Amino acid sequence: MEQGFNSDSNAPSAPIDKSRVYDVKPLRSLVPVFPNTPGMSSISTPNPTPFVCVPPSGPFPAGVQPFYPFMVSNGSQPTMTRNHSANTGFNSGIPDPVPLNSFRTPTPQANGGSSRAKRAYKTSGSASVVIEDDGYSDAQDQSDQYASGFGTHVTDADDASNSGKKRRGRPKRRVVGNGAEIDVESVANNILTLFKLKEFDEIRKANGDKDTTATVLLVYDLIRRTLTQLEEASDNTPGGARRPDLKSSNLLMTKGVRTNNLKRTGHVPGVDVGDIFFFRMELCLVGLHAPSMAGIDYMSVKVTVSEDPVAVSIVSSGGYDDDDGDDTNVLIYSGQGGVQRRDGQMFDQKLERGNLALEKSLHRGNDVRVIRGIKDTSNAPGKIYVYDGVYKIHESWAEKNKSGLNVFKYKLIRQPGQPEAYSLWKSIQQWRDGTAGRPGLIIPDLTSGAETQPVALVNDTDGEKGPAHFTYVASLKYSQPFSASKPFSGCRCLGGCQPGDSSCPCNQRNDGLLPYSSAGVLLTTKPVIHECGQSCQSPPNCRNRISQAGVKFRLEVFKTKNRGWGLRSWDPIRAGSFICEYAGDIVKVTASDFENANDDNYIFDAGRYYEPLERVYDSNSSKKAPFPLVISAKSNGNVSRFMNHSCSPNVFWQPVLRESNSGVCLHIAFFAIHHIPPMQELVYNYGIPTEADRGKKKCLCGSVKCRGHFY
DNA sequence: GTCTAATCAAAGGA
DNA sequence: CTCCTTTGATTAGA
């Protein structure tokens, strides 16, 4: 098969006219960067096939070409024909497909990094807006005040332009509780230094891969969470929201820690269909969808002499009256505009910008990425964005809305052969609310109510009826404390521990900063986390009791293809979320116990050697835990005993200390390394085997980084 | 080059 | 839970 340019290559034998296929090709701002020949420009190549997207899905080893290893046969035919007819029907007045060479305009870096690099942290533009609207001017002043309140990050240029503008109204002071100012820049720099990302290389900026996107998102999350934490701790201004999501992404954008920074149609390397995101800016950082707010992303393409906009991606998140019908492969998308954001005033939509781009893409027949915004039920006002793969636009029309105003509508149909994404969410929703049964269900809740959430036992793979018998216990039980010493007294936080409360002993024990965000997400990893204990007066829902509160996600134990039973979640899991602790029996490390432990497949041993987890903040020192703890979950255990090993884990463990009456107990808590989409198996690294044990357990994790065996 | 308008955001409070 | 206010970033296009 010829080198695929783009997702069109996934239908090699489909009877589509070639001109249309070529038509979708290398767009003007697609500038391939080749790891092996960095200086080469594709523009001068006679045969410009090089734009090969890394397969977006699956753990394909390096060097695999197929874009998608599936499909070709079913369903694609009728889709194509319909598409074709739709196009010809609408073709009047639109330029015909352009020959390939017209795309090779030698203006590659037009919107490249150079202009961006000069962008200041905070534009001075907002200050000059402050003329028209009195109601608005105050807010603008406030924002300026805020920006300069951070001091160090404001560039000289900004200071100059700000001071040149006259401030109107009463300047509002930013009150800072601790007297400590948050230095956003240095927070970010520290984290970037830690991850050795001060210089993010151009190759990774231009084209992502799984590792790069994961790194960018991780660092984004770290900076965002750290800012959240610092602002929570120091900020008592009303109205609280200081948008750490935007600030941290802005920092990364200006520092060039981003990937797929040039627009392109089709899949984006390093992002799989089904991947989930929790902020719009995350889409931006990985190059999936550039605008920070707008729902339609487009780029312009040179057509002979003029330029045409072409849609590359859309976000459908219910802002307009999109049709979310039963068929998850179809999306009726509303055009943009027609509503004044400030005052809600409405008018006709116009065929310009994104709307025009969608119209052009209809005739062009190019792939359009679709990101579905879904309400996050676990996190009230929040939203989760699911990359639902590529669609093609099949129809467009204009209709009148309730107010009789013009609205454009676009009918998009999902390209066949892509992994389940949005449809999977719909299925899960049905399993949950009972409108559809979970296929292969053996037991609805194998914990028999021991957890607050039921844990289904499922086998849709083979005939096995369940794992060997064990007793479900929700937590690790100590017969005697890990350490009898009680070095601290409990807190008196009746309303739960609060960040910034320096008198709270829990804050103090955790180096002055609570380990969890208000949403219960782990902020930074540490050698040990000190949670509230028995003598603390904080309520059970205190944010410093996250690992004691039990499993919050809807998990299921399922039969894997070749690795026995495994664990996965119906719910999406945000990076840093607590998943479960390792429950079981403490194994005393005597010679005989150790022998028994060796044929126990349900051992957790903190004393093993663990590779430093590059993905996790501050874990670079955790080669070996500074304490002995061996847990067996063979006869007593919880969901954790089903978590398999992987050399590319999505879960890591973290020691947690909880004090009880008799002393201090150490627990092992599992947290998500990155965002985990529903139904993706939860796996962690079991540790590196000693020489003696090497080769005993063959690893089947399938990761590119697989070391072949595990402990 | 600069600048601004347009945009299916996110959080918190009422 | 919905609505409203506040604080906002990115990019296309002027």
Q: Can you give me a brief rundown of this structure?
A:
The protein has 711 residues and is of the alpha+beta class. The chain has 15 helices and 24 strands. Strands 1, 2, 3, 4, 5, 6 and 7 form a 7-stranded mixed β-sheet that branches. Strands 8-9-12-13 form a 4-stranded mixed β-sheet, with no helix packed on it. It has a 4-stranded mixed β-sheet with strand order 11-20-21-14, with no helix packed on it.
Question: How are the SSEs placed, and which strands pair?
Answer:
Layout: H1 18-23, H2 76-90, H3 113-117, H4 125-129, H5 134-149, H6 156-164, H7 184-194, H8 202-206, H9 210-234, H10 244-255, E1 276-277, H11 280-285, E2 296-303, E3 306-316, E4 330-334, H12 353-364, E5 368-375, E6 383-400, E7 406-414, H13 422-433, E8 441-443, E9 456-458, E10 471-472, H14 505-509, E11 529-530, E12 555-559, E13 565-569, E14 578-581, E15 585-586, H15 591-598, E16 603-605, E17 630-632, E18 636-637, E19 644-645, E20 651-659, E21 664-672, E22 683-684, E23 697-698, E24 709-710
Parallel strand pairs: 3-5, 9-12, 10-18, 11-20, 19-22
Antiparallel strand pairs: 1-6, 2-3, 4-7, 5-6, 6-7, 8-9, 12-13, 14-21, 15-17, 16-17, 20-21, 23-24
Helix pairs in contact: 7-9, 9-10
The chain binds a DNA duplex (14 and 14 nucleotides) through helix 4, helix 5, helix 10, helix 11 and strand 2.
Domain SET: 553-687
Region (Disordered): 102-122, 138-174
Domain Pre-SET: 489-550
Structural account:
- There is one protein chain.
- With 711 residues, the protein is α+β, with helices and mostly antiparallel strands.
- It has a domain at 114-168 and 180-429: SRA-YDG (PUA domain-like), CATH 2.30.280.
- It is 21% helix and 17% strand.
- It is built from 15 helices and 24 strands.
- The strands form 7 sheets. Strands 1, 2, 3, 4, 5, 6 and 7 form a 7-stranded mixed sheet that branches. It has a 4-stranded mixed sheet with strand order 8-9-12-13, with no helix packed on it. A 4-stranded mixed sheet has the order 11-20-21-14, with no helix packed on it.
- Strand 2 and strand 3 (306-316) form a beta hairpin.
- Helix 7 (184-194) runs antiparallel to helix 9 and helix 9 crosses helix 10 (244-255).
- It is globular, with a radius of gyration of 27 Å.
- 41% of the residues are buried.
- Mean pLDDT is 72; it is low at 1-180, 236-240 and 619-623.
